C-alpha cells in the first residue's frame, strides 16, 4: 500500500483545518503501522482525534450556517461508526481490522476533496476572521485530481 503523504496540495488554506488534517493523517498512518498488540489503543486514539476534528469542523459549519452541513455531519458519523466497528474487531482479528484501516488514507483524501475543501471555500467567501484561504478552489480541483489517482 502506497502512503498518502501530506503535501501543499492537501491544504485547504484554513490554518486550523490544515494543522488538524496533517495531524490526522499522521495518526492514520501510526494506526495502520501499529503492531497487533497496540492496534486497539491506536484505533481508540484515532477515534478521539477524529471526534475532536469533526467537532471543530461542525462548530465552524454552525458559525457559517453552512448549507450542506447535514451531508458533512453524516459523513463524519459514518467514518466514526466504521472505526468504532474496527475497535472490537482489532482485539480478535487484527488483520480484519487492518483491512478497514488501510482504506483510511483514500477515505481521508475523498473527504478532504468532497467535504472539507468546499467548507474552506465557504470560509473564504464568508470572510471568516480565522483565515484567508488562498486559491481554495484551485486546491479543490487539485485534490480531486489526486483522488482520481490511485494511492
Structure overview:
By secondary structure, the chain is mostly helical. The protein has a single domain (8-148), classed as Up-down Bundle (Four Helix Bundle (Hemerythrin (Met), subunit A)), CATH 1.20.120. The protein has helices spanning 15-33, 39-64, 69-92, 94-101, 104-126, 136-148. It is globular, with a radius of gyration of 16 Å. The N and C termini lie close together (8 Å). The mean pLDDT is 87.
| Contiguous runs where pLDDT drops below 50 for at least 5 residues | none
CATH class descriptor: Mainly Alpha
Overall number of structural domains: 1
Task: Output the CATH homologous superfamily.
Answer: Hemerythrin-like
Largest sheet composition: none
Radius of gyration: 16 Å
The total of helices stands at: 6
Number of strands: 0
β-strand percent reads under 5%
Helix share of residues?
Answer: over 70%
Order of helices and strands: HHHHHH
Distance, first to last CA: 8 Å
What is the CATH-assigned architecture? Answer: Up-down Bundle
How would you describe the shape?
globular
CATH topology: Four Helix Bundle (Hemerythrin (Met), subunit A)
